[in-house]
């Protein structure tokens, strides 16, 4: 009699991932048969929903499998839920857009699912080998997604640029991991943490070189200044739903791994705090200042995403459990309102001949007042006005910084938020007050995108008024940090 | 026994050549090759440490990196072909649609 | 410390010596013929025609890339084969999953018609 219990024990840990993967494969194979090609969208959506349900079911448990290579702790399982939710929202946003732009192919959904699978793998491990693999499983579909509009030169260019930068970053990351491995003779962060002082004492140089290279590699991935040059180009060139996905999913995944590496694995390196101090200030300032100069909404949102990455980097400088939960909270908050903002941009772009320049917003308040109101809500959240979730996220981040004695960091963060008011409110100024000769084209809603707008708006406002639930979620993700 | 520093120097040189290649080359194919060179420098470091420390993890990692690099190269070349069909060039200087 | 490198040095010297010897022997002992055929890319078999800059059909590229992918993924089978007894059924199932993933890729390629030549 064959004993399959060991198999089941291990696969238990990765049920949501398995669901995503099976769904992606089903979509790929169904897409090749003409008769079933129409089913792909619903299959993808359904599997994502099943995966979400499985992930919610798994949340709060603590398991590990595959010889300790996969660890599904509270932190990891929280991010599972976040990533799958982001994937679902992306697919909802994309559906109509892809048809209008004549790039609707089933592969899109498969790629989104596989990329989400990669993100989950990344966040659910303490082993650097698996982190690297997860990162690549996430990134390779993203390269294809950036260049998904095959006939569009801009999309091609975005894809190639993203590919070159991504592969370049991976090489740095690999080198960094190799050096950390050389210093510690293991790739498991738990063992590195256990012997940290011993490792630093005996092969500190290798360790420092490795950590620096890893920081550079992930700096590219999350768009940290001075490794941010690709972000605006790729965000602008990629199809807009893909940009929405970029700004939410991979960013959150990058931060999840960075949190795991630098607030758990290499926490013992005291110098990192001041390095992150400088990086945070550079990133948010550069992002905000460059965003002032943009005339394209997607480009503006790209620079704003750099700035928001800078805010989250504050948590790394501060360190400690509060900062960690603040970073998780802010990642979730940013994903919610940024996806909402991008959903509006996608909706505007489905009108004919729109390239999402600021001038196209003129007269929007007359043509579609509801959409404009929702856009205003997201813009307020991006700026950080109460009572939105953006305000609470920033408040939480800055207050943990102040509590830990990083007063200047908090002050610079607040000043940066004031700078950002200018370019965010420009969106509202153009759409509400700019006069136009001919009325703006009205937008046509679909149930999917309306649902997205409702969910994100409700999240932005609801969690802003009652942040307790989300805060508890973020804090519970910290405590079982393994 | 060859000292670990020798391997590391070779790897550093390879990595440096790759980095310079990515940053300065005008031809996308050469950029791809440079990236592969950088990845292989990482592989060399892994193998060297793995042998010096007498741990197998590094060898396993190199297998995985090799396959990942192949997958990446396939995607990159496919995208290059698409771009070439639309633009008739692989020169980086000509990719200037997206600029700030 | 350089004693460890002596075998390599010896190998380099020997290889150089051998190369020179072989060339020298063929110059000294060989018969000179200057037939036109000697200056072609292939002395026998295919007659070369056209320049090397002629565009090659994209099909070759497609097949080559696909071959590369499937070929390199197989390197996982060898390490697995060595330790398959220790890994037991768990390892077997893992490898089955891996093969199934590759098969899905294969059927996708087949279904999209990437392997059709005409």
3D architecture notes:
The complex is a heterotrimer of chains A (482), B (100) and C (118). With 482 residues, chain A is mainly α. Chain A contains 20 helices and 2 strands. Chain A has a two-stranded antiparallel ribbon. In chain A, β1 (63-65) and β2 form a beta hairpin. In chain A, α2 runs antiparallel to α5 and α5 packs parallel to α11. Chain A is globular. The two termini of chain A are 36 Å apart. With 100 residues, chain B is mainly α. Chain B contains 3 helices and no strands. Chain B has helices at residues 4-24, 28-53, 57-87. The radius of gyration of chain B is 17 Å and the shape is elongated. Chain C has one domain (2-111): Up-down Bundle (Methane Monooxygenase Hydroxylase, Chain G, domain 1), CATH 1.20.58.1610. The model of chain C has no long low-confidence stretch (mean pLDDT 84). The interface between A and C is medium-sized, with 13 and 11 residues.
- Tell me the fraction of residues in β-strands of chain B, as a range: under 5%
| Number of individual domains of chain B | 1
- Assign an overall shape of chain B: elongated
Q: What letter string, H or E per element, gives the SSE order of chain B?
A: HHH
Average pLDDT taken over every residue of chain B: 87
Amino-to-carboxy terminus distance of chain B = 53 Å
Features:
heterotrimer, A: 482 residues, mainly alpha, two-stranded antiparallel sheet, 20 helices, globular, B: 100 residues, Helix Hairpins, 3 helices, elongated
List the helices and strands and how they pair.
The complex is a heterotrimer of chains A (482), B (100) and C (118).
Chain A: H1 5-12, H2 15-32, H3 40-58, E1 63-65, E2 70-72, H4 74-100, H5 107-123, H6 128-146, H7 153-184, H8 189-194, H9 196-222, H10 230-237, H11 240-265, H12 272-291, H13 297-318, H14 321-349, H15 364-367, H16 369-383, H17 389-403, H18 407-433, H19 447-465, H20 468-479
Antiparallel strand pairs in A: 1-2
Helix pairs in contact in A: 2-3, 2-5, 3-4, 4-5, 4-11, 4-14, 4-19, 4-20, 5-6, 5-11, 6-7, 6-11, 7-9, 7-10, 9-11, 10-11, 10-13, 11-13, 11-14, 12-13, 12-18, 13-14, 13-17, 13-18, 14-16, 14-17, 14-19, 14-20, 16-18, 16-19, 17-18, 17-19
Chain B: H1 4-24, H2 28-53, H3 57-87
Helix pairs in contact in B: 1-2, 2-3
Chain C: H1 6-29, H2 58-73, H3 77-111
């Amino acid at each position: 009699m064959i004993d399959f219990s060991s198999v089941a024990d291990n696969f238990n840990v990765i049920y949501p991932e398995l669901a995503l993967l099976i769904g992606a494969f089903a979509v790929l194979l169904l897409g090749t048969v003409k008769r079933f090609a129409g089913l792909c969208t619903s299959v993808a959506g359904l599997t994502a929903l099943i995966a979400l349900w499985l992930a919610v079911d798994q949340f709060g448990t603590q398991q590990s499998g595959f010889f300790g290579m996969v660890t599904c702790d509270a932190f990891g399982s929280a991010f599972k839920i976040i990533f799958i939710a982001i994937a679902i929202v992306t697919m909802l946003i994309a559906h109509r857009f892809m048809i209008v732009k004549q790039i609707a192919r089933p592969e899109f959904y498969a790629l989104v699912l596989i990329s989400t699978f990669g993100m989950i793998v990344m966040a659910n491990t303490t082993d650097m080998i698996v982190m690297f693999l997860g990162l690549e499983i996430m990134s390779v579909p993203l390269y294809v997604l950036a260049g998904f509009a095959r006939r569009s030169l801009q999309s091609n260019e975005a894809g190639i640029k993203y590919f070159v930068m991504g592969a370049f970053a991976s090489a740095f990351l690999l080198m960094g991991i190799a050096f950390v491995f050389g210093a510690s003779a293991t790739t498991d962060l738990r063992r590195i943490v256990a012997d940290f002082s011993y490792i630093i004492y005996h092969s500190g140089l290798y360790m420092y070189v490795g950590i620096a290279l890893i920081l550079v590699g992930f700096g590219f991935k999350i768009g940290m200044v001075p490794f941010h040059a690709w972000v605006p180009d790729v965000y602008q060139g990629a199809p807009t739903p893909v940009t929405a996905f970029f700004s939410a999913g991979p960013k959150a995944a990058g931060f999840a791994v960075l949190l795991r590496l630098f607030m758990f694995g290499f926490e013992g390196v005291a110098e990192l705090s001041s390095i992150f101090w400088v990086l945070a200030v550079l990133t948010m300032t550069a992002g905000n200042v460059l965003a002032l100069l943009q005339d394209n909404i997607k480009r503006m949102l790209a620079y704003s995403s750099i700035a928001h990455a800078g805010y989250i980097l504050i948590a790394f400088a501060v360190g400690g459990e509060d900062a960690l939960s603040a970073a998780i909270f802010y990642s979730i908050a940013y994903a919610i309102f940024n996806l909402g903002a991008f959903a509006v941009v996608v909706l505007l772009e489905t009108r004919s001949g729109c390239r999402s320049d600021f001038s196209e917003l003129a007269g929007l308040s007359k043509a579609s007042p509801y959409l404009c109101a929702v856009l205003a809500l997201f813009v307020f959240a991006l700026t950080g006005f109460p009572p939105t979730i953006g305000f609470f996220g920033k408040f939480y981040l800055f207050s943990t910084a102040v509590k830990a004695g990083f007063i200047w960091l908090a002050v610079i963060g607040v000043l940066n938020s004031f700078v950002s008011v200018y370019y965010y409110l420009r969106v509202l100024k153009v759409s509400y007050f700019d006069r136009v000769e001919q009325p703006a084209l009205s937008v046509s809603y679909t149930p999917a995108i309306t649902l997205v707008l409702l969910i994100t708006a409700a999240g932005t406002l609801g969690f802003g008024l009652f942040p307790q639930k989300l805060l508890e979620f973020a804090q519970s993700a910290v405590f079982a940090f393994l | 026994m060859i000292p670990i520093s020798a391997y590391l120097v070779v790897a550093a040189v390879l990595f440096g050549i790759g980095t310079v290649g990515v940053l300065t080359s005008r031809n996308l194919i050469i950029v791809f090759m440079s990236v592969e060179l950088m990845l292989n420098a990482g592989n060399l470091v892994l193998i060297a440490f793995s042998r010096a420390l007498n741990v197998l993890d590094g060898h396993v990692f190199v297998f995985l990196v090799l396959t990942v690099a192949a997958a990446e190269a396939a995607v990159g070349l496919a995208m290059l072909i698409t771009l070439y069909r639309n633009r008739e060039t692989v020169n980086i200087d000509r990719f200037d649609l997206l600029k700030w | 410390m350089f004693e460890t490198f002596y075998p390599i040095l010896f190998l380099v010297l020997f290889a150089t010596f051998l190369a020179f010897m072989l060339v020298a022997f063929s110059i000294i002992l060989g018969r000179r013929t200057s037939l036109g055929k000697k200056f072609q890319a292939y002395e026998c078999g295919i007659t070369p025609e056209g320049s090397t800059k002629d565009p090659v059909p994209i099909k070759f590229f497609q097949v080559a890339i696909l071959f590369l992918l499937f070929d390199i993924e197989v390197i996982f089978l060898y390490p697995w084969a060595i330790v398959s007894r220790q890994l037991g059924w768990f390892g077997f199932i893992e490898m089955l999953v891996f093969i199934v993933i590759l098969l899905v890729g294969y059927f996708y390629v087949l279904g999209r018609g990437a392997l059709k030549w005409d």
